[in-house]
Amino acid sequence: MQTLKVKVWRGTEEGAFQEFEVPRQESQTVLDVVTYVQRKCDPTLAYRFACRVGVCGSCAMTVNGRSRWTCRTHVDKVAEDGTVEIAPLRNLPVIKDLVTDMKEFFDKWAKARGRFSGSKTRKDEFERVSPESKERKRVDAGIECIGCGVCYSACDVVSWNRDYLGPAALNRAWTLVNDVRDTAQAERLAAVAGDAGCHACHTHLNCTERCPKGLSPTAGIAGLKRAVLSATLSGELAD
Amino acid sequence: MSRRTEVLLWGAQRLSAMVLALCVVVHLVTMILAVRSGLSGAEILGRTQGNVAWFAFYTLFVAAVSVHAPIGLRTILGETLGWRGSATNLLVSAFGIALALWGLRAVFAVFGGAAS
User: Fold this and answer.
1) What is the pTM of this model?
2) Is the domain covering B3-111 a CATH 1.20.1300 domain?
């Protein structure tokens, strides 16, 4: 039987790769490989997954040095010389083995005012937003984020500046900046401005290159840069 | 540093980058053309001194460098060495002023009078 050599990170921030032999199967995903290791080789291996079909965003890991969603990553596409190296996501504290602590990742969504603020009640009429409007199209371009953390892990700026909000939080903010129903625009632009916000982005495009949903956080961040500069020049940006 | 100042610095760096892109192209093309036609240093100085248009162009060039370089250096120092705060701001401000002084000294030497 053909086998795959798998190197899996064991430990926390400190640790080492442990090697396993895993039988190769047709259409085998990296998540299948990790599951095999946990069920057949070492039940103490810690990893995280839920849906297995690219919806929940739980199973992102670093595969052969690149951040990926493992449930939709086929071994055929990523194995190098019959070997796959699987590590936890970068730029996040490692809890154990392949499980990272996502707290700072999601805290930054809150810091970027990533929640909707509306003014209407359930008794009011629905707001009518044309699917053809410029704002709605911009929202559509970024709204399918599943919060997997791949972009955050791939971002160099996060590794250089730990306060940087990161591509996912800024992408979320951009979808809300373009939500014509939202009433917290001034606060949101202030939250994403400056050295830890959108202006720290170097446009390396790692997030756009790696996003498994094919989104472009870089484009959203560029939009935020323009919106914040415009608000600053017109004196609308809160200090 | 205030949020508004950070955004304005970013805007200043983008604007100065646009000016620099134009200035560098004009500067390089002019230099290449001047050398190809076989002009000596003395002949070039003879043409530049008292030329108000070139004086204005290179003053703009120096101004753009003096704005662009310290802002970029501030970011590099923050991201690679973790140097952030008022001491770094003072350091890069001094660097920007030094660039402006050196640059303007050269501009005056080439366009305003005899080279020192």
Assistant:
1) 0.90
2) yes
